[in-house]
Recover the amino acids of this structure.
């Protein structure tokens, strides 16, 4: 995801062309991975 975040950001034009969807997705997935790494079970 991190490798493609910039490309996704450039595609991000709807509904608001804020250009941060790739960054947001990458950060969300980083948080998920961190939580799973810390989970016991």
């Amino acid at each position: 995801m991190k490798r493609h975040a910039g490309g996704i950001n450039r595609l991000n034009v709807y509904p608001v062309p804020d250009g941060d969807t790739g960054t947001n997705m990458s950060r969300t997935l980083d948080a998920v991975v961190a939580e799973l790494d810390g989970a016991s079970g």
Q: What stands out?
A: Residues 2-32 form one domain. The chain has one domain: 2-32. The two ends are 26 Å apart (CA to CA).
